[in-house]
């Protein structure tokens, strides 16, 4: 699936020349084509034959465009020919310039001269195609100043796990992400407390700690060696190497006891704290034009530690004694300080890049994306991310493309360090083609990605939103576009709630309403209450209307739910003695079942089955879990006083009824397993496994199911234990 898009990238970059420089002579346009073709080196991911076919097609149609009308003739035999038309109806700009990049962030009503997409239209499309809460974005781990350990890289700041939720029936992308996550190494660094690193001019000879001199001579930027003072005796746990330049510290050995204490982490390092101000004073003193990073954030970072980890540069002359300066905790603090619009912008940036480069042997990592993102954020006010998401995103992509073409991406804190120095020319050429394709056809790239993840409304939404781009480009009048976007937002809301994505829908409605308020125009914006209520009135499912109204009331203290639901004594929340999940508390229990826990449990089980068929886990999960709770409460009630019954026959009858009641849990837990399997997620199943194992003791015939459940959870040993019990 990825190689197919790489082919499309070549098509887009060459095919767009049909709508660039149309007033030039045929010879001049042929020259442009050859120059562009020369930058797209064929290889494993971009076949030579494919490039030649596209170039031949473009050259052929250059000749067809010699008439004064400059009408573009598109050959029906070439797939994706719609990419060669311009949404704005105007010629596209051939290459990005400093001026065009600046306009991206300064003019929120700009029609992007590179893609032909108006920035407001791009913003609304991204917002509707990738709603904020449909992107898994765990955020940074809590920062502890004196913690003796931390995770390395993007695991610490949470950026590694940023993915677009897969809502497709096949769950292919979820399976892909899970497989990719299992292959990824989890690295943690344990910090030594008895080793200090400093400059030779700041040596404290009276210190009880081992003091090492920071030596960055003959090392690449961002790397160093740690040298002992003359006459200093290393401690027993310190590995050293004597060279002609002195005695240097090597990597510490990781003890077996340490490995046993941290079982969930595959690789451990022992690192050393290094004052941030010691190596990054230039970053701290550098003046920034706008509000990122804030002065308070810079002060906090300046007082922090970096970490030295035993890792050499790939071109190191002395890899055994080289240490890398790691900024994981500081990056984590910066990521945590981002505003919500900034975090959303970074998440979109990462989803776009990773989904188009997963197939590459050498691809950009989170550290590359964070570096260019932080650098870009310094070049415009933070508030622009909220008012002009499309422009800011294109600016960041252009910034990355410039770095790739220059073969130099500076480290955010150590700008002399090139984060691309391990990439080959072919690697960078391929990345240039992919990143440039995102830049020139951002909407089609986004549509391509969301369709893979099951957002089937993408194509129709894109076509509909882009219908009036030519009119907007000429008039820059936004009111008519906003009215159209509102209707498309309501349609997206209906689609998402059908699958139970109530919280993302509520957040999406609020975000789009904010965009309508930010849009320049003459009319007064509609109140959010009316805007939200308008979406509910168009929803066919009663459950969607009631749940969304409840979520609105919960947040704003209103009573919108009264328009769609009248609370009664038959509601689930009234029938049960404990607090019921807000998403299902409104359900009406049939009159004949409301006073009986067992009947309520069966009612909820049936509800869970129905919602599972709709792939609505937001309702299917709490209904089955509440059904399980009903049976557990019923079992407790039946157990009271049983041991005091003297009548053996009566006692046996009660115990048999209790066993029959307990047996109902078998199908309930199997339903829980099916829900987890539906989305290839350990939850909710993993939360019930202890109870399932206890149930299996009373019902050994469940052993096969328990075996399957543990196999799904990746617990092979447990699975084998129950496999041996299967008769």
UniProtKB/TrEMBL annotation:
InterPro entries in UniProt: Mab-21_HhH/H2TH-like, MAB21L/cGLR
Gene3D superfamilies: 1.10.1410.40
Pfam families: Mab-21_C
Mab-21-like HhH/H2TH-like domain boundaries: 348-435
Signal peptide segment: none
UniProt name for this protein: Mab-21-like HhH/H2TH-like domain-containing protein
Protein source organism: Magallana gigas (Pacific oyster)
Organismal lineage: Eukaryota, Metazoa, Spiralia, Lophotrochozoa, Mollusca
